[in-house]
Amino acid sequence: MPALLPLLGAFAPHSEWEHRLQSPKRAERARMSRPDIGILGAGAFGTALGVALAQAGRRVEIWARDAAQAAAMVDERENKARLPGVALPDGLHATADLGAAAQAPVVLLAVPTQRLRSVVEAHAELLRGRVLIACCKGVEMGSGLLPTQVLTDVLPETTRGVLTGPSFPADIARGKPTALTLAAEGAGAAALQADLATHHLRLYLSDDLVGAQLGGALKNVIAIAAGITIGAGLGESSRAALMTRGFAEISRLAQARGANPQTLLGLSGFGDLVLTCTSDKSRNFRHGVSIGAGAEPDPGQTVEGVMTAHAMAEGADPDEMPVICMVSALLKGEVALREAVDLLLSRPLRFERG
């Protein structure tokens, strides 16, 4: 991985790299025995990233918490539980040994946001010194921290970033053209961008970690609301209005937290919002459709927007965040669907200021 060498030189402990420079043959053997990229989490997104990167020639080790799932992926060369119908390339190896995946210099964390802290805390020593890239969207309950802030909280000296944007795992795994935002800081960011990009997976670099993560997290809440409008039969015009006002809400909140407003107009903001609010492939949208139709949502699906809505609504001003606060209240059963709609429609008329 030639592109990765400047990144490692910038971020790895000097003593380690001095040792390797003194022992080139030993360094070469170590390089060939370890993966180029580790992925923690063998869900649909983690698997899809592993497939794309392995197809592009990287050696990828993906960790599955369930040993039976890891064994099945090795034997069947497919993740039938999470990404059926997609063959796993030879360069992608599944394991139940997190240490094997953590050998890689770059580790992608494709675990749900609410489990991110526990995974990193439990394996902090293995992950120390690695470049950690969060591949999850959301806000941690209790702390209100974004994924990279959780990483900083657990491993303060860790180099971290986030991979986010409009994408569905099946599209990535099947080689359909997809563009994502890689938000990272430091001199090695451009090398990391080059190393994680493939012919079909185009990465745009950003240094706005806060904006990229808030866009990806909050659009899930708006997607639940968009699904509710469709499930309740309120119509396409209603969804368009909700998406627009929801985007204005996201932008205000992100800028108040120091985000660059231009970030929200990009892939991790507007782009992700459009995809998630308009496709039946979106878990958050489908969750909202079920609620709007009075049906029971699929309990087996991880819906990050639910916890994000509650985390963001806690202590928030409903006048500044009417959609997010209303979604949280509705999901908690504090208001009924018809009451929620009436409350939003009865808000005072105002000048459109974004």
Major beta sheet, specifics? Answer: 8 strands, mixed
- Determine Rg (CA atoms, Å): 21 Å
Regions with pLDDT < 50 over 5+ consecutive residues? 4-31
Query: Which overall shape is indicated by the principal axes computed on the Cα atoms?
Result: globular
Q: Return the string of H and E elements.
A: HHHEHEHEEEHEHHEHEHEHEHHHHHHHH
Main β-sheet, spatial strand arrangement: 5-2-1-6-7-8-9-10
Q: Bin the helical content.
A: 40-55%
**Multimeric status of the protein:** single chain
Average residue pLDDT: 90
Counting DSSP E segments of at least 2 residues, the number of strands comes to 10
Query: Number of DSSP helices?
Result: 19
The SS-based structural class is: alpha/beta
Distance between the termini: 45 Å
* Percent strand: 5-15%
